[in-house]
């Protein structure tokens, strides 16, 4: 008689979070670009037109001509303010549930809009390129930046499924 024993090891779902020191590095780097909302969204759309094409208001339009519009500024501000909110919450374990709630909602909203993991990865590449060329950057900042994005993307990707 054979017994098949299945050991299911379920890793405790404790989210990674930045230490206060790491958060300070992130907040300082982000503070240099957080008011460049329009330039950031422009850089993302320029590098990845498939992201622009997901927006009913922007699909099929010339990027340089929409860049100055109120709709463009509004959406750029929504995205960048969201990031600022999460960056500001980082560095304290007590804020981890708030971050998880906000980022999970973002994942759910974007799943229902049909945004793919590949597109989120494109966004990551574009915003990292922007940050690395518009704020003080070095190995230390890059490591914290990547850790923060890994943490947030783990939550988003779990929702995108
Ligand atoms: C990666 C590809 C992405 C695509 C294709 C995408 C697409 C969209 C679309 C179509 C909307 C609705 C716009 C409207 O109401 O007219 C939206 C809303 C929004 N997006 Fe994204 N998005 C992406 C990534 C992100 C990321 C990385 C963030 C934040 C860091 C973000 C933050 C938001 C926010 C805050 C809103 C408005 C609130 C909401 O309705 O959820 N998006 N996005």
From TrEMBL:
Name of this chain's protein: Globin
Q: Where is the signal peptide?
A: 1-15
Query: Which Gene3D superfamilies has this protein been placed in?
Result: Globins
Asked if Ion transport is a keyword of the record, the answer is: no
What's in the keyword line of the UniProt record? Heme, Iron, Metal-binding, Oxygen transport, Signal, Transport
Q: Which GO terms describe its cellular component?
A: extracellular region; hemoglobin complex
Note the superkingdom of the native organism. Answer: Eukaryota
Q: What is the species listed in this Swiss-Prot or TrEMBL entry? A: Polypedilum nubifer
- According to the entry, every stretch annotated as the Globin domain falls at 17-161
Family per record: Belongs to the globin family.
Question: What GO molecular function annotation could you give as one example from this UniProt entry?
Answer: metal ion binding
- Does the keyword Signal feature in the UniProt annotation? yes
């Amino acid at each position: 008689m054979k017994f098949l024993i299945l050991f299911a090891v379920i890793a405790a779902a404790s989210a990674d979070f930045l230490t206060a020191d790491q958060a300070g590095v992130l907040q300082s780097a982000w503070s240099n670009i957080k008011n460049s909302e329009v330039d950031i969204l422009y850089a993302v759309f320029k590098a990845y037109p498939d992201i622009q094409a997901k927006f009913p208001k922007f699909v099929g339009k010339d990027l340089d001509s929409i860049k100055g519009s109120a709709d463009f500024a509004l959406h750029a501000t929504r995205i960048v303010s969201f990031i600022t909110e999460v960056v500001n919450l980082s560095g304290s374990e007590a804020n981890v549930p708030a971050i998880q709630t906000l980022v999970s909602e973002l994942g759910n909203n974007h799943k229902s809009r049909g945004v793919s993991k590949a597109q989120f990865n494109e966004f990551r590449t574009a915003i990292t390129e922007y940050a690395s060329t518009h704020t003080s950057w070095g190995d230390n900042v890059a490591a914290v930046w990547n850790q923060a994005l890994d943490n947030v993307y783990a939550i988003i990707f779990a929702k995108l499924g």
